[in-house]
């Protein structure tokens, strides 16, 4: 049997076999782009081979829904499966999940990704580690543990999976090092960070810890949390705080952490309410997030955002400083939305970046969805897009359905809203869905 994707020349090289890499490779194949999919892992799954640490996902999948799994409409109810044009290859996470599942386990998510790769024929060169990157006249060379790959474009689907903590917290155990929840029985726990991983830890430790303190400078937006996709999973610590049950959610900046004979003393300065705080703890955990494992890319000029944690990207997920370098998966969050009306993209989650990957593959293939429209078909098309297109609802205020109106109308399909707004274009209209700061959903 011939080796999968041996070193050599390709149009595109995709690095990573998590959901972003698998989705990109699937569509590159459908669009006829000769490419290599490389992975340092031994099997598909990416971050879901390891995270989340307490197994249960925060994104939902309704095993039983009002529409059939083979339909595109089912994407509304399944935020974890990858996209497929063939009905039999859709909704593979609920196909392997238990009955009545709403939040799949990490293992079920991994199994769904493995099934997607096997059934759709996505093939990766596993055990092939990307090591260095260099430019060439007409593209890029990736030096790997298996040899050199030359291509005009690279798609890094490497995740945001390397633990990150600010310098002040060096030496503090990270979320990634957290043990079994029962290990914290009867202990005073301080969790530094009040985002997803912080609330995940607090929710799991709630039955075991003597007390839990979540601390970070920014206040929790309780009204936003109540409407979020992870409200059911992570709102319990906030409710415990509100009723005085032994959990405390504090707005404070941590200055230093001191070792004491019976544990730790965390020194912090209040932000919402100024004042010095001293927090006594048996255990301190840094739930301060992750960064993309960018290796040598910053050294050769990759611009980043978020304290260097993710790449700075154009609306079509290309590096703003290294042409030909693209990102898929949750690192595609480096392409900022317009941030109107409080809407935020879901590019950090499969439910959002699966649509980004399809558009990226289409762009790399030089494909266009452009097709002529009768004038009396324009309004019904746009109304149907508002009502029924899953990508507009998953990526609110981020993706849009576009129609040009000069001469004969043409349907351009879905594209990033920021691209539509910033590019010189003929008379055209783009429709999207946005969310007001109070949670009201409206078409725009």
Descriptive overview:
By secondary structure, the chain is of the alpha/beta class. Helices cover 22% and strands 26% of the residues. It is built from ten helices and 23 strands. The strands form six sheets. Strands 1, 2, 3, 4, 5, 6 and 17 form a seven-stranded mixed β-sheet that branches. It is globular. The protein starts with 7 loop residues before the first strand and ends with a strand.
Main features:
seven-stranded mixed beta sheet; 23 strands; 10 helices; alpha/beta; six-stranded mixed beta sheet; globular; 444 residues
Weakly predicted, low-confidence segments = none
Q: Which percent range describes the beta-strand content?
A: 25-35%
| H/I helix tally | 10
Looking at the structure, what is the overall shape? Answer: globular
Amount of helix: 10-25%
Write down the Rg.
23 Å
